[in-house]
User: Fold Drug/metabolite transporter (DMT)-like permease from Catenuloplanes nepalensis.
Amino acid sequence: MRVQVRGAGRVVGRGLAEGRDGRAAADLAALRSADLPAAGAVLFIAFVATLGGFGAWGSLIKRYGASTVAPFSMLLPFFGMGSAALFLGEPLYAQDVAGGLLVIGGVLLPFLVKPRPRAGAVAPAPIGSSS
Assistant:
């Protein structure tokens, strides 16, 4: 089945249209049969993981600055794949590992290679110093 999406309204409309064939009823049945561990998992993700993650992220940005911390957000898919393989037994293929290593290399490259000063360049004065 091929779906062409041209706007958010069509996505919602498409979702409602698919609900007519019983998928919405199956989703509602799954929600009604949710037990205490399922509710606990949703609450953990919603509050502990999300608030803890954003709190840690904000703290790191405050301490080190956004330009230093932001590149590490690119590591999320790599750690997601690794966690899925470790905790859920998902298969991890060689191309996944190679792609992850390329991403890690790309994230670490600016920290490992210091730019050389150009010939004739003058270092900027420290902030707050009078010239």
Q: What stands out?
A: Confidence is low (pLDDT under 50) at residues 1-13.
